[in-house]
């Protein structure tokens, strides 16, 4: 899914919602354990009940890896189940030297190699440009680079001062030179809305993936006030707040209700901004 | 394998060699393709021919992930095949918020969950302490934190100046507070031996994993001059230089010859330093 297609989906669905599939087999309704692949069954039902309200799904690779082979099977099947109108974003936070990042790119982008055909992947910046380039060699795929994360530990390094800039600002400046805004997005933690202004100065046109709304405490209103640009430029993620809205048999309906609340809020925000 | 056991193995084998299992199915001898799991068969033969010369094996997760389910099967079986006298180190460069890092820890440390029972994992520091802590909650396991990497792109951020220190020095200072040298090692790229002095000032007693000897151009002599401490304190990795010493049917014998050369050099270095 390219930038133009993503923007079209946002306008059509009046939503910039990304749903995080952090699916933990311990937390899904017990009746699903009777299915051959309970996690896949859970994801399918979540997707079936929300795909018209969101523009992206973001499985969190760790939750699948933790279950070994069975987990990878769930992840592969989930990636194939995400419908065409939604960005398939794998949250894997990979990053290594060139020949190794090239292998990670095959793992998540090259269906013939691995069974997975994601559109986008989260990447960690510490090892620099070589962590990113091999992913961009896959035509039309996206890198979603960690810039400012919503966790407490994000402060350990991301706010260190280099001259008059913070490290996260230096990461954006460098990464702006690695790819255009049609191939690169930035991860920006929503619990720090005051930083959005600084980020929008450096990356006015980029899409920002905001992971911290909901369980991590960010506010959609505040994120949107500072983060929305004239083509939207935001993907706001909610995981636990949607997929675990209920742990009973009605989980898919309750997930839809929560997704709908966010979509309706987003629809108003997009209108106010004159995007739709 | 705890610190004391690792030091005992180093003294017994007169070696601080780590062999990187960056096993690429495209690069292994063709006759192995007749085996049910060619990558596993390759790894087994490499391990069989070298385990008395090295103290650690380091599979590179990306190379396995790139092959989807088949690759994970090879990785799980490989992890189980590494003998008890060698540290089982997975090079996975993970790191995320707490609940996600906890899942990665299950993936690589908790055999019941995933089939894998590694002793140690490489972790990226950008997201701070929460990236590291969940791994340390597994008793006796190690975090091997990225500090200074041997790739060109490592310069993009790791050498940025924060006051009078470089970012990589700040990473060490912070991480020294997260765990002791019995649970934490640091990754230090060997192509920058001049930095070893600075690192040894901040981490005199830690084990350092040095990934860049061989194909990436580092010198064992120089690394050892600055990096060895009184209990050795180094794991020097070689991947391609050993496992692809020959691409013919004699690959395992040739791997042993290359490993032996390094082990013999290491034996002299350990003697000179008075460690054995």
- Elements of chain A, N to C (H/E): HEHEHHEHHEHEHEEHEHEHEHH
Mean pLDDT of chain A: 95
Total number of strands of chain A: 10
Quaternary structure of the protein: homodimer
* Spatial order of the strands forming the largest sheet of chain A: 1-2-3-4-5-8-9-10
- The percent range for strand residues of chain A is 15-25%
Ends apart, CA distance between termini of chain A: 20 Å
Q: Point out poorly predicted stretches of chain A.
A: none
**Sheet with most strands of chain A:** 8 strands, parallel, barrel
Provide structural commentary:
- 2 copies of one chain form a homodimer.
- The longest helix of chain A has 22 residues, at 251-272.
- In chain A, the strands form 2 sheets. Chain A has an 8-stranded parallel barrel with strand order 1-2-3-4-5-8-9-10, surrounded by 6 helices.
- The model of chain A has no long low-confidence stretch (mean pLDDT 95).
- Chain A has helices at residues 3-13, 38-50, 61-65, 68-81, 98-109, 111-114, 129-136, 155-158, 167-176, 196-202, 220-227, 240-243, 251-272, and strands spanning 17-21, 56-59, 87-94, 120-123, 142-148, 161-162, 165-166, 184-188, 208-210, 234-238.
- Chain A is built from 13 helices and 10 strands.
- Helix content of chain A is 44%, strand content 16%.
- In chain A, helix 2 packs parallel to helix 4 (68-81), helix 2 packs across helix 13 (251-272) and helix 5 runs parallel beside helix 7.
- In chain A, strand 6 (161-162) and strand 7 (165-166) form a beta hairpin.
- With 276 residues, the first copy, chain A, is of the alpha/beta class.
- Chains A and B meet through helix 3, helix 4, helix 5, helix 7 and helix 8 of A and helix 3, helix 4, helix 5, helix 7 and helix 8 of B.
